[in-house]
Design a protein that fits this description.
The chain has 221 residues and is of the alpha+beta class. It has 5 helices and 9 strands, in the order αβββββββαββααα. Strands 1-2-3-4-7-6-5-8-9 form a 9-stranded antiparallel beta sheet, covered by helices on one side. α2 runs antiparallel to α3. Keywords: Signal.
């Protein structure tokens, strides 16, 4: 029996792979927005991921702006060792041609190559939103080696704003009272209750209240 030959087999396989893949396609050289759910903690978080810098010019540094638990956080990932787990390290960032700004990040408890900041997250995000060209990063590692990377800011504003909006909306929902009290109507506050409240006031407060009631009645006529 002759083997079955399909024309353009590589093209067919590529098309099938695209159809079967349900994961989002991310642009390598652009800022990307992702919104995912942590099935373990049943929490939704969103992330703005930076493009990778050119390997022939800089170290591989990547930024991620994350909204998790209604809190903004900026993560930095490197291919090289930065510091021991749970340790602080120094970085500096320069937006376009502005002077460099220094801050501290902390490595994650399970990683020596990835750190984060939440205390300076808003300041850093505002700086990136104000930038037009690039953010230049320098990271001082535990071996005193300095890592450097330049990340373009083209297209970053829209993606960053999505994450910031996610956190703002989440904070507003969390701050809302899940069991708001019904508004008190006029029928709920009768004259007898008013007399009881009135008698609890001092003489000066009673005179002040009566003056306001008199003025209110005159305005309603």
């Amino acid at each position: 029996m002759q083997p079955l030959c399909l024309p353009n087999t590589p093209q067919i396989l590529a098309a099938m792979a695209l159809l079967l893949c349900s994961c989002p396609v991310l642009a390598v050289n652009a800022w990307n927005y992702q919104r995912e759910t942590d099935v373990v903690n049943n929490q939704t978080y969103s992330t703005a991921m930076s493009p990778m810098p050119r390997r022939d010019l800089y170290d591989e540094l990547k930024l991620e702006v994350v909204c998790r638990n209604q809190q903004l956080q900026v993560d930095l990932t490197a291919d090289n060792l930065i510091a021991s787990q749970g340790s602080q390290f120094d970085i500096s960032y320069q937006i376009d041609q502005t002077p460099p700004v220094g801050l501290q990040m902390t490595t994650f408890p399970d990683s020596k190559r990835k750190g984060y900041t939440d205390t300076d997250a808003q300041t850093l995000i505002k700086a990136m939103l104000a930038g037009k060209e690039s953010i230049f990063l320098k990271v001082l590692t535990m071996t005193r080696k300095e890592l450097a990377g330049s990340i373009p800011l083209a297209g970053a504003s829209e993606v960053l704003q999505k994450v910031v909006s996610d956190c703002a909306a989440g904070a507003a929902i969390a701050a809302a009272d899940p069991h708001p009290k019904p508004l008190e109507t006029a029928a709920d506050y009768d004259f007898k209750t008013f007399q009881q409240d009135f008698n609890k006031l001092s003489v000066g407060q009673q005179r002040q209240l009566l003056g306001r009631i008199k003025q209110l009645l005159e305005d309603m006529r």
